[in-house]
């Protein structure tokens, strides 16, 4: 056991996909590859890194891991991530030291700014000040709640979530279960149009592709799935122009956005399940 005091709470369900609650699994078009924003998770607890990798991966993020601050520094400047999520209590180089080292290297390199979010077990005001003084941008308090973490990621990486929560809230309010139901209904209703669009693209049926893409664009925008709506709009425009090269170029993007939307729905379901499905808790005594 680690003696450094890591705690995280991850929402539990009875299976990989909460189908018993009426949530659909990822669509059959899933490409299986996450190419969303990269997040570097830094924690000395391997189990916590694994849980975060699974949950963030389901939401469409590319997740890389580092077991300590020194390893994180090497990875960070070899392939800079969009965001670093780090534990403040780690051996050898803690989160504060790592944040200071990142900022120092950015300054030495002449610019750049990596978003750093700390995971801390201390909710006192002074802890926030310590995080900001070390150069961190934000923090989440342990036990980490998935819903809160998603909000932080959306705040610091705007436009990365597959659903605009403001648009969704305008339809379904702030009720998480109603939001899930709304997106789930959209995905279920869109299955036929999505299949029609893929068939039209693969068959080079121009008018059918225009019509299916147009329907998907409108429905996606209504529920706040703006990235999917954008892809459908580009496919529609390219098909109207008879430009199949552009249409085919967007085919994989269409797959990806459908998969991201399905994964995001599952992540929301995990979060909403907190009140009745229990939690998985991990604690380490310091």
Attribute tags:
286 residues; alpha/beta; Rossmann fold; Four Helix Bundle (Hemerythrin (Met), subunit A); two-stranded antiparallel ribbon; elongated; disordered N terminus; disordered C terminus
**DSSP helical segment count:** 11
Order of helices and strands: EEHEHEHEHEHHHHHHHE
Number of domains: 2
Query: Whole-Å distance between the termini?
Result: 10 Å
Main sheet properties: 5 strands, parallel
Low-confidence stretches: 1-33, 274-286
**Widest sheet: strand ordering:** 3-2-4-5-6
| Overall 3D form | elongated
Find the CATH topology of the largest domain.
Rossmann fold
In the CATH scheme, the class of the largest domain would be: Alpha Beta
- Please name the fourth-level CATH homologous superfamily of the largest domain: Response regulator
CATH architecture descriptor text of the largest domain: 3-Layer(aba) Sandwich
Count the strands?
7
Report the structural category.
Answer: alpha/beta
What is the residue-averaged pLDDT? 78
Rg calc? 21 Å
Strand content: 5-15%
Portion of residues in helices?
55-70%
Layout: helices, strands, pairs:
Layout: E1 8-11, E2 38-42, H1 46-58, E3 62-66, H2 69-78, E4 83-87, H3 95-108, E5 115-120, H4 125-133, E6 138-141, H5 146-156, H6 165-172, H7 176-203, H8 206-223, H9 226-240, H10 244-272, H11 274-277, E7 279-282
Parallel strand pairs: 2-3, 2-4, 4-5, 5-6
Antiparallel strand pairs: 1-7
Helix pairs in contact: 1-10, 2-3, 6-7, 7-8, 7-10, 8-9, 9-10
